[in-house]
Amino acid sequence: MAKKNSKSNENFDTEEVIEDENVTEDAKTKEVVDNEDAEENTEDASDEMAENDDSDGIAEDDAQALDDDSESDDKDKGKGAKKHFKDKKNKHQQIIDELNDKVMRQMAEFENFRKRSEKEKTQMYDMGAKSSIEKILPVVDNFERGLDAAEDGDSFADGMKMIYKQLITALEDMGVKEIEAEGQEFNPDYHNAVMHVDDEELGENVVAEVLQKGYMYNDSVLRHAMVKVAN
Question: Rounded to whole angstroms, how far apart are CA atoms 24 and 195?
Fold first, then answer.
């Protein structure tokens, strides 16, 4: 019985050894498999990281491309806005220039109208003054004839002479002056020859006598002097 038990123990020990060896081999095999799986997982992770890096690079490239497109669009929009602003500014400047030209033309027309109006008013005033003075001149002529016929020393005639002098001064203040004729060379612009006389003492075509005084109003002849001219 002792021998039989010993054999059984030996068989059991052998089985345990075999089982231990099998476990060890299985563990080794499992460890190898686990290592291979770990390596495969590492390689897969590396590949995935590489793919992620590639995708990140592509995403960065896409983002950069989008940024470039955005900047290009912004530049195009900026150029368009500047061009639009420039065109609008040029249009406004053109309108301003047209308005300035219109105002300058109107001012020039108004200045011409003012000068023309002043000239017309002056001409109308001169025409009215000349017309009035022409009506007074015959009164002056009669005044002079009456004073020439008055006797010297007559107090009444002396008073009339003072009034006559006052009248001539008033006419001179209005721009009326007598045309010098006697002893002057005949000038048809100022003189009106009604008679010719032979006078050896006077030169040819010289006014010998004034029959009626002539007058000027400013620079225009109000009435020609009526004269005798020597041949």
Answer: 175
Evaluate whether residue 222 is within a structural domain. yes
In a domain, residue 229? The reply is yes
Rounded to whole angstroms, the Cα distance separating 128 from 41 reads: 126
Residue 228 within a domain: yes
Report the CATH number at residue 216.
2.30.22.10
**pLDDT in the model for residue 71:** 61
Domain encompassing residue 202 = 177-231
Distance between CA 154 and CA 190 in Å, rounded? 36
Q: Percent of the chain having pLDDT more than 90?
A: 34
List of residues 6+ apart from 99 with CB closer than 8 A: none
Which pTM value belongs to this model? Answer: 0.53
Beta strand ranges found along the chain (DSSP E): 176-178, 191-197, 207-212, 215-217, 220-223, 225-230
Write out the DSSP string of 189-215.
Answer: TTEEEEEEE--TTSPTTBEEEEEE--E
Number of domains making up the chain? 1
* Cβ–Cβ under 8 Å, residues 223 and 177: no
pLDDT band at residue 202, thresholds of 50, 70 and 90? confident
